[in-house]
Amino acid sequence: MDAAYLKIEKTIDASVILYKVPSLFPKVDGTTAEPTGITGSPPPQRFITFLIISTLNLGFIVGTLFLVMLFMTQKSYDAIEVVRFLIQTLLGVTAVYNVCFDYTMFNYHELIRQMLSDAKKLRTQVTTPNNNPSKMQEFLWTCLLHELFFSAVFGVCILPIAPFFLQEDPVYFILKGLSPSSGFENTLAGKLLRSLTGGVLGYHWLMGGAYISATGMELAYLIPEILNCIVRDSRRWFRKCLRHRYICFSLLVHLCNNIFRWTLAVTLGGVGGVVVCGISCSIKFHVLVPTYILVAFLIVSLTMIILIGIILPNAASVHELSIEYVDTLKARALIRTSSRLEYDIRISRATQPISIECGCFTTFDKQSILIWYLAVLEQTVNVLLGF
């Protein structure tokens, strides 16, 4: 698993070609130090182009929202207008949750790198090194992670190509709304502008989604493994350093919640919207959608479903394992001698279960993945029946 994540990190870092993007991955040796300046302090990193594209992304959201509102005010519509509505909604929702990615990457990239490095160090302290890792498991995970990344690349590559063959991208309708009689959106210059806008935004979405998704999957792999080792040692009565390790683990999860709680909440809703629009359009309006657009919708929807299927169960296991660890402490307090009883009771009362938070309104448990899939299925059926 470690080798698979290291390879996908190298692939994502090597894909940063257009402009500088805040990297979320620590160095190979686990350090996060930056080159120091004359005063000995790290020089501030500038991501001016990243901020400019993020601002363009906000403008794209406003324009797409305007188009969706125009559709919703219509009293009647035909099938092709429904397809356009679903496409605009899919792209608009993608832009919305990428705003959360931009905010998280720009403001917390150094903290996330340090958190990943600390998680790897803590995992090294609590686990026994595996000198003979499974080559087959490593190969399968490497293939899966790269398949998810290149599937997203394929979906993004559609955005700069589609303006030359279709008139369904939001920029086309925005240009047409700004100047209805000029016909600029159908000229070569207009198509190049639409293609450039779609390509730049698609690349921006790709890098933000790749960095956040890879970081989320790696944390979803490291955090439950650390807690699982702590619970295992508590069953074997290895008391030394267990309390301190659980405190360190709690601080790590608390930091993760502070950074990602709203990113996770918005992403779950946004990804659900993308899956609903993509699957609904592919099922009911497959005749009206070009084949390559249809394939892109299906691949992106499947990629989103797999990502959620990897992250949510691991995030939910944190709550279950922490409850098991707290119950182990309570059971130990009941069988201690009178000289240690008061101390163990204090420790067991002070130790509370922890969990990964989603927004400020809920935490992940073992039913979260089922609830998300059922909600997506219900909304997909509603869209299919509504149109």
Short note summarizing the structure:
The chain crosses the membrane at residues 47-73, 85-106, 139-166, 202-223, 266-285, 292-312. Helix content is 75%, strand content 1%. By secondary structure, the chain is an all-alpha fold.
What would you say this structure looks like, in words?
A hairpin with a 3-residue loop joins strand 1 and strand 2 (362-363). A two-stranded antiparallel sheet has the order 1-2. The protein contains 10 helices and 2 strands; from the N terminus they run H-H-H-H-H-H-H-H-H-E-E-H. Helix 1 packs parallel to helix 4. With 387 residues, the chain is an all-alpha fold. The chain has one domain (2-22, 46-386). Keywords: Membrane, Transmembrane, Transmembrane helix. This is Gustatory receptor.
Any key phrases for this structure?
transmembrane, mainly alpha, 387 residues, 10 helices, two-stranded antiparallel ribbon, 2 strands, elongated, 75% helix, transmembrane helix
* Helix and strand composition category: mainly alpha
pLDDT average, as an integer?
A: 81
Proportion of residues in β-strands: under 5%
In the predicted model, the low-confidence regions spanning at least 5 consecutive residues are 32-44
Q: Helix and strand string, N-terminal first?
A: HHHHHHHHHEEH
Adjacency order of strands in the biggest sheet:
1-2
Main beta sheet: strand number and arrangement? 2 strands, antiparallel
Domain unit count: 1
Radius of gyration, Cα only, in angstroms? 24 Å
- How many strands? 2
Count of runs of 4 or more consecutive helical residues:
10
Q: Indicate the multimeric state.
A: single chain
Shape: elongated
Helix content bin: over 70%
Termini Cα gap? 44 Å
Transmembrane segments: 47-73, 85-106, 139-166, 202-223, 266-285, 292-312
Protein name: Gustatory receptor
Keywords: Membrane, Transmembrane, Transmembrane helix
